[in-house]
Target: Beta-lactamase-like protein
Amino acid sequence: MSQAQSAGQSHLGSTSPLPHPAKDQVYVRVSALNGGFLTLPERNFVTDPDPDKATTVPSMCFLIEHPRQDASTPTRLVFDLGIKRDLTKYKQPATQHHITTRQPVYSTADVKSSLLNGGLDPSKDIDYVILSHIHWDHIGLPSDYPEAKFIVGSGTLYILENGAPCYPLERIERGSLPEHQVVELPPVPDSDRKHMAAAAQSDHQWQPLSVLPHAVDFFGDGSLWIVDAPGHIHGHVNALLRVAADKWVYLGGDCCHDRRILTGEKGILEYDNGHGTLKSSHAELSKARATIKNVQKLIETNGEAVEWVVAHDWKWCSGNQHRFFPNYMY
Ligand SMILES: [Zn+2]
Model:
């Protein structure tokens, strides 16, 4: 069974396929990047877990290249920065403790070294960093990218200051984003979190795309869409890349931590937090479930046209090593 066929088995009917290419349609190139590895115990993530099973998974990141008119080099974006190669750079004791629960962690081969290996200098060749969210295993070392603008979902700067449900202040690596380089997307029109939005926002507009209720056309030419993907933590975003006339790549970040949730083989686990209440790997479980349904619907509606990958998909990672930078996926 192909990846697209196996996904979205819930038969969520829909009639809005992704658009046909425009005249002079622009496409992006995409390449996978190493963002380090961490170990996830099944008992925190998927329904019917094997209580003793833990899997060492990647925290994958992606290089996206958008052709620039009248220039020999493309605009380069990195989606997520993975794990900090120097784990002592996580300043919060609570983060350090959390990392002990995710061992083994491997961080020496990181995004910076992946880019350098392919001949790119992160200190000057990267124009944008899009962060799916600011969890420790996605935020990397922003100081490696002094020339880049950091694009983040609405509410990200707020939670960096104030914490969030399931991500208390003691786990927040305050000051880890260079604020003068950060551009926050506006809240979606029907957001219940408008009070968390940054005072200054990008002028992007949210619009529906295929079955997705809220997406931003980042370059205005339909080649790179940032997708609102709420539930995991405030400001969580995904990306949908147009790589060919009939091919798209969906970067799912942490919309789920195990590919079997998107294929419908597993569900998101709720487990006892040790104090008699249930928790999950997502701050807002009902929104996280709705996001999963949206992604399943996108895959079901568009079939083979959409290849999808989530940050911690060890199976995709091990089967697609030939598509890591300096090689390209598309
Ligand atoms: Zn996360």
